[in-house]
């Protein structure tokens, strides 16, 4: 047996023995208000394929490997071990490391018993010639088997050789997910972005994406997939995005 | 008028969904409702809090009367590891659910 295969089997055996689950996601472009149970640890792998046609056509696949930990009943911490991507366009193609990030989510109210579930989110991202700050207000309400969620996000990005290229972005996302069975949910996600290069709104960049999602959960793992199509006509943005998050309790 | 009608229908649907999601607050009657079972108010309150926080990490909350009182302990037990529930927390959730069920029965 090859050493790599042996190591893989050993790691899988350890992980399955230690499994405790942070929770399943019902959306991929939105966060939900509830946080992970204290002491739970989860590995999430994100894969996002972006496809753009026309003069600026490209295909890009983004990868994220995230560890999520429940600190207390209300606080959840995550580390993005690595964000990297593979991009292919008419001029070149290749893989690039993007950044590493930390994320904190604090839950304020519960989406079942309170009028609305609220959480606040903060993220710091740092990479090669890149610093990004992101804050988010997460709202959610559960109506029986139906989950409604809304996120408002503000991002500040500094990038370039001396971090002198600045960009701001405000985005809002709305999602609905209906639990068809204990293992399967399906719904819709909408993403509306306002981009401000150099923190100015002279270019009036607005992007709107919409599409379906589906979740399957079983045991200590889940997979959620969302396909979004661009409803606007922004050249530099993907016409189509497909995001998959695979989560597994550790 | 058509828009108002659609809004009213949607509101009714959401309200009906909400009623199936009802997680009753703990009352003193609940603590005394179950004969032969000791579950004080603090335990029932903790059970309710855990029920609405931990269970929704993976799924929406089931209607409490969907399963029998005999089935509930095994159902909670089957998911307690996944939800990182300690034995006492699992007991509190079961106690809350059974107290609600007893009042409904």
Written account of the structure:
The complex is a heterodimer of chains A (250) and B (105). Chain A has 250 residues and is mainly β. Chain A contains 1 helix and 12 strands; from the N terminus they run H-E-E-E-E-E-E-E-E-E-E-E-E. Chain A has one helix at 3-18; strands at 41-52, 58-70, 75-88, 93-109, 117-127, 130-143, 146-159, 165-179, 184-197, 205-218, 221-230, 240-249. Chain A has a 12-stranded antiparallel barrel. The longest helix of chain A has 16 residues, at 3-18. Residues 7-19 of chain A have low confidence and may be disordered. Chain B is mostly helical and 105 residues long. Chain B is built from 5 helices and no strands. Chain B has helices at residues 2-20, 28-33, 41-54, 72-80, 87-104. The N and C termini of chain B lie far apart (43 Å). The mean pLDDT of chain B is 80.
Give a short summary of the structure.
The complex is a heterodimer of chains A (250) and B (105). Helices cover 6% and strands 63% of the residues of chain A.
The helix count of chain A comes to 1
Which structural class do the helices and strands of chain B define?
mainly alpha
Note the gap between the termini of chain B: 43 Å
Percent range for helical residues of chain B? 55-70%
Low-confidence stretches of chain A: 7-19
Please give the number of β-strands of chain B. Answer: 0
Count of DSSP helices of chain B? Answer: 5
Principal-axes shape call of chain B? globular
**Largest interface in this structure:** A-B, 31 and 22 residues
Number of strands of chain A: 12
C-alpha Rg of chain A, in Å?
19 Å
Key attributes of the depicted protein:
heterodimer, A: mainly beta, twelve-stranded antiparallel barrel, 63% strand, B: 105 residues, mainly alpha, globular
